[in-house]
Specification:
Shape: elongated
CATH architecture of one domain: 3-Layer(aba) Sandwich
CATH class of one domain: Alpha Beta
Distance between the termini: 47 Å
Structural class: alpha+beta
Strand content: 15-25%
Number of helices: 28
Helix content: 40-55%
Radius of gyration: 34 Å
Largest sheet: 7 strands, mixed
Number of strands: 26
Length: 742
Amino acid sequence: MSAAFKITKTYPVTGMSCASCAARIEKLVRTLPGIKNATVNLADASILVESLPEVITPAEMKRAIQSLGYDIIIDENHSEELKEQAQYSYFMKIRNNTVGAAALSLPLLVISMFLSDIPYASYIMMALATPVLFWFGRQFPAGAWKQLKHRSANMDTLVALSTGIAYFYSAFVTFFPAILQKEGIHSHVYFEASGVIITFILLGKLLEEKAKSNTSSALKRLVGLQVKSVIVIMSDGNEKEISAADVLAGDILLVKPGNRIPVDGVITSGNSFVDESMISGEPMPVEKTINSRVFAGTINQKGSFRLQAEKVGGDTVLAQIIRMVREAQGSKAPVQHLVDKIAGIFVPVVIIVALISGIVWLISGIDNALTYSLLSIVTVLIIACPCALGLATPTAIMVGIGKGADNGILIKDAESLEVAHRIDTVVLDKTGTISMGEPAVDRILWKKDTDIDKYSKILLDIQKNSEHPMAQPVVRYLEESGVTRSFLLSQVEAITGRGIKARVGSEQFFIGNGSLIEENHIKANMELMAAAEKWESNASTVSFFADSNEVLSVMAISDRIKNSSVEAVKQLHSLGIEVHMLTGDNEQAARCVAEATGVDSYKAGVLPQAKYEFVRQLQKDGKTVAMVGDGINDSQALAQADVSIAMGKGSDIAIDASKMTIISSDLTRIVHAIKLSKQTVTTIKQNLFWAFIYNTIGIPIAAGILYPFTGFLLNPMIAGAAMALSSVSVVSNSLRLKMKSL
């Protein structure tokens, strides 16, 4: 029973150098007991694991991964800091090794090209090449040995084999030149090739690490919003600074002007304006008073206040956003699964191709066949690095998801990002998606010759003390209009299904629907009644305000259409996308919204199951469907859709059921998401094209296929430079996504 409880966590991974490393770790972790799924993200150096906590612990997983020669960081409180330290340490190690290798390889290259006839040239070159291979480039033979112990191979295997063969062949030539000369083989050494190859590969890895760190900048910015320390108010009233990780639900915290809010909670004293653009996307600060809700990561601008912590640690809105971005960046697009399979078998195939090319050269019968044989093996092994292939998809996905986060679009997995560009039908929920999701007063019409100032104050007094659902929008409207209270109210009484009646001083007032007015025999003039009929025909709820004798005003209350909704439907139509609207609201309200927004079709009075069936039928008709909703009643349809999109201000269940979340609830962001998907998929295709073309062309040339026709043989040094360039070009192409407009 308990084993059915599954958790999903992301752990930083250290020690990976290529796609084969990622595939190896992924394969091992998936075979461990209690692991439901595991996905390694090479670009972000992390592993996303779905596991059964009572079957396997993180420590057991860590030991298994360490047996391969890699490691994971399982310290939850400091995992990001430790990961950054590990990445920085690795970057500095690569940088120092690159500088050291380059410093020795430059004179090595000069001696080889211009001073090869000086005394003891081979010994000098060997002295220069040895530390390059076995100290500055020691990670390659060390990595190859780890792989060999597990009967596997990766990029380190290719580099170690190619440079090792070149080095030991040259060492043999240096110490025993007479043996080769007796066989008629020119005793040329390739120390410079092995040294320069190591330098090029290290330089490529240095640039690659630098570029990869840029792809996760959006996530780093989000993590940076988390507060490190907070001021907690102790039971005796004293203030104490503690770590944000130690805050418990129920603690009272002090937030000063200019500080970020550390947790989600409710203000218990004080007031201020808070910048919530991180969550809402809106630039205007929001006024906060007692009982106002505030969120972690937002910025307190003006006054100090105290808040009671409700959601802390990983439960805050900010922590959920960070988790969604991290899990999304670690997830794989469908095309990536094919790439992983290719990377897994790529290295053994390349080794076989290199050996075959060496054998062909050896039996070709040409002069110096052994030299050519060794050169072809070395060059094939160097040029065929699978890194470009392994980085093609994850780097593009990471940049795409990061760019989405920057534009208010949280993408939960790579599959939705890949599929979104194929959307041809969008289904919209009405309330909270197309509309604001809360009632608001559109207009108040007063009877002529009424003392509007006096009766506005009375109306505000009554509604402030009313618990009727329609009271709050009236209060908001009046307060925004500058009306202030007179505080004369003495009694309010609810009348079920009708409205309320209230006594203010010696006068009695009524607020409610037409039935309340009729039952109390209250008069209403023709102008007010005509306005009420017109508003009702436009699907507004009409509320009357009257004294004991006559109606003083009539109010139109409705769920307003968002400003962005009409524009969003236009933009979707411009992309050739059908737009449908489903709602549980009545026919009249649905028709008015449909006409105002220009959707292609609508259905009213729709229950959750019917929404699900509608989406399913569209899919049966061959459509690629995006469902957009914000409520619990949308969750079934969201789960069924090809791409599910939740409004950021909607229910947790809708957000959990969806693959994308629009933080600001602005529907035009859907168009941005589709454009982002197109850009990302195009980038992935470009990356894969160049990675495949590079290997398809490079390996035969390295094997010497052009030699019989042109006499051309690829220099191992050039092969090393080309291999490094291929990885950097893939990452750089992915980073171009950042500069494209949506």
